[in-house]
Amino acid sequence: MPRTLSAPDVGTRTEHGEDLTPLYHVVLLDDDEHTYDYVVEMLSNIFFLPTEIAFQHAVEVDTTGRTIVMTCEREQAEFGREQIHAYGADPRMSISKGSMSAVVEPASK
Fold first, then answer.
1. In sequence order, what are the residues at sequence separation of 6 or more whose Cβ sits closer than 8 angstroms to the Cβ of residue 50?
2. Distances in Å between the alpha carbon of 109 and those of 6, 13, 45, 96?
3. For residue 34, which of 12, 43, 101, 105 sits 20 to 30 Å off, Cα-Cα?
4. Mean pLDDT of successive 10-residue segments in the chain (109 residues)?
5. pTM of the entire structure?
6. From CA 93, how far away is CA 90, in angstroms rounded?
């Protein structure tokens, strides 16, 4: 399973009164137009995940319909989502017409 960080709710403060930056998940969504090899390759190239971890994400997205591939601040999460959307079609499947889909969600959900 992917490791994720617990995120504070928007507007929370530390015990010292410091504002905490809210965190967001980059969530990869399942489809039937991409192979496990594509998912492993993409996650390794975009997020520098080891092959074993990328494969675990491939299994999770296939079996549950989604997997959290990264938890970070909003700007980086949106960049990660855009990298997934720009990765392109899976050349291993003729029905693959484009990249996989991903969404950004607040980690405090």
1. 44
2. 10, 18, 28, 32
3. 105
4. 41 59 97 97 98 98 98 98 98 96 92
5. 0.82
6. 6
